[in-house]
Specification:
It is a single chain. The protein is of the alpha/beta class. It folds into 2 domains: about 20-210, Aspartate Aminotransferase, domain 2; about 210-345, Aspartate Aminotransferase, domain 1. It is built from 11 helices and 11 strands. It has helices at about 20-25, 40-55, 75-85, 100-110, 125-135, 185-195, 200-230, 250-255, 275-285, 315-320, 335-345; strands at about 65-70, 90-95, 115-120, 140, 155-160, 175-180, 235-240, 265-270, 290, 300, 325-330. The strands form 3 sheets. A 5-stranded mixed beta sheet has the order 7-8-11-10-9, with helices on one face. It has a 3-stranded antiparallel beta sheet with strand order 1-6-5, with helices on both faces. It has a 3-stranded parallel beta sheet with strand order 3-2-4, sandwiched between helices. Strand 2 (about 90-95), helix 4 and strand 3 (about 115-120) form a beta-alpha-beta unit. Helix 2 packs parallel to helix 7 and helix 3 (about 75-85) crosses helix 6 (about 185-195). The longest helix has about 30 residues, at about 200-230. The protein is globular and about 75 Å long. The N and C termini lie far apart (about 65 Å).
């Protein structure tokens, strides 16, 4: 007998059973059986199982106690987690004040339309977090961590699989992982809203996971070089990167990652720059591409005030450290000197 080295794609929407007993089990929600594409798919399940294996890598004996569900985007995964965890009219949800712009809008404006109270807290101020939890008792606290807390620390892990899991800028997807006790609520909401990930996308994301350690290691190494060499550029007011010794959370990042890497995202703040100056800088870039994502093998740059945090007011952006001169650089896998040369030339344009 033989088996393929690379897993295949099962595109089928429907499934046929030899007996109605198995069909009944499938319709009843048996996670190991398939009946309709919106209810589950073998290719998607393989990706979900791989996510659980990674989330439980330091406690493999508990992998069977957890599940993962893939969605059509990272925002769909966040929405799924919020809804399945009990966000209803009259409930309160809290989020870190420096969360992703679309997540901020979800908590600040979308959910409040349905009677949900949205709160924001400085996640670096643990005393403030504890006080908010005690006074407001939110049903859910959303935080975005630079590290992966794994399922032994948090109740639900959410990934925008579009980013470093996919890694090539060619697939949109999200995934949530949690303990099995939460699966019925999550699966029921996903089934009814149809926010599922397709099998072709799941296959691409599963493939991306195989090279993720290689890609991310290179990207983190590049980011450290780029941040260090650009930190003294006279056109920059600041370079923010946790790998730099002057970063306020450098020691925390070093303890978390044991010096193995500090992420692949660098924030550049141009001196005395207004929007028109940032636009000139973006247009002067030749290799680094202005695009609204991170995690690609190519270096990408984004203007948060114009893109990811566009919906926030200037005061809201300022509260989380986003000035009109701030640019986000997602460092790719190119030669770091090529990245530096392109940015330097654009700054001097």
């Amino acid at each position: 007998s033989s088996a393929p080295v690379v897993s295949g794609i099962v595109p089928s929407i429907g499934y046929v059973y030899d007996d109605t007993a198995h069909l009944d089990s499938a319709l009843g929600g048996d996670p190991d059986l398939y009946v309709y594409g919106r209810y589950g798919n073998p290719t998607v399940a393989a990706f979900q199982d791989a996510v659980v294996a990674l989330e439980c890598h330091d406690m493999p004996e508990r992998a069977g106690d957890h599940f993962a569900l893939a969605t059509g985007s990272g925002m769909a995964a966040i929405h799924l987690a919020m809804a399945a965890c009990g966000i209803r009219s009259g409930a309160t949800v809290a989020a870190a004040q420096d969360c992703y712009g679309a997540t901020y809008s979800l908590v600040d404006s979308l959910w409040p339309q349905y009677g949900v109270k949205g709160l924001f807290v400085d996640a670096t101020d643990l005393a403030a977090v504890e006080q908010m939890l005690a006074c407001e008792a939110p049903v859910l606290l959303i935080v975005e961590t630079i590290s992966n807390p794994l399922l032994k620390v948090v109740d639900v892990v959410i990934h925008s699989a579009t980013k470093y899991i996919g890694g090539h800028g060619d697939v949109l997807g999200g995934v949530v992982a949690a303990r099995n006790g939460l699966r019925p609520a999550f699966w029921e909401f996903l089934k009814k809203t149809g926010a599922n990930l397709g099998p072709h996308e799941a296959w691409l994301l599963h493939r991306g996971m195989k090279t993720m350690p290689l890609r991310v290691e290179r990207q983190c190494r590049n980011a450290a070089v780029v941040a260090e060499q650009l930190s003294s550029h006279p056109a920059l007011a600041s370079v923010r990167y946790p790998g730099l010794p002057d970063h306020p959370q450098h020691e925390l990042a070093r303890d978390l990652f044991h010096g193995l890497g500090y992420g692949a995202v660098v924030a550049l703040e141009l001196k005395n720059a207004a929007q028109r100056d940032i636009f000139r800088f973006l247009e002067a870039l030749q290799m680094v591409q202005p695009a609204t994502t991170v995690g690609d093998i190519y270096s990408l740059v984004l203007y948060p005030s114009h893109a990811s945090h566009r919906a926030l007011s200037p005061a809201q952006r300022a509260a989380v450290g986003i000035s009109d001169g701030l640019v986000r650089l997602a460092v790719g896998a190119e030669d770091p000197q090529d990245i530096i040369a392109d940015i330097t030339a654009a700054l001097e344009n």
